[in-house]
Amino acid sequence: MAKDLKDVIGLPEDLVDAEAFSREQLKLKIRVDKRKFGRLVTIITGFDDSIDIKGLAKRLKKKLGCGGTAYDNTIELQGDHRRKVKEFLLEEGFKEENIEVL
Question: Which secondary structure element, helix H or strand E, spans residue 82, and what is its range?
Fold first, then answer.
């Protein structure tokens, strides 16, 4: 993928950061779902394969002090963390206009 980006951006291959470039292009959705026994789960969708989703989920869980999981380009966190997740994603380099909180 880096060669394709090199041709598009016009930078040498060693200066192209595919993950940082894709972070600016992704359309992420943050929503809360209610599970059995009334428990709330924050769900973040819209990631692609260029993002290290497991590492991102690990950092999110550590920062928020909650449990969760990452699978199929989706991150699930225990509890309602919509506002904090958006702030964290902005710190990680995602664009604010591409993050939708439902």
Answer: helix 82-91
- Would you say 79 and 66 are in contact if contact means Cβ atoms under 8 Å apart? yes
Nearby residues of 79 by Cβ (< 8 Å), 6 or more positions away: 40, 41, 42, 64, 66
Class assignment of domain 28-101?
A: alpha beta
**Which two three-digit tokens encode residue 46?**
């819209």
Per the CB < 8 A criterion, the answer to whether 85 and 44 are in contact is: yes
Q: Is pLDDT at 69 greater than 90 in this prediction?
A: yes
In Å, what is the CA distance from 45 to each residue of 15, 27, 51, 85? 28, 9, 12, 12
Residue type, 100: E
- CB-based contacts of 31, cutoff 8 Å, min separation 6: 42, 43, 45, 82, 101, 102
Domain limits, the chain: 28-101
The model's pTM is 0.75
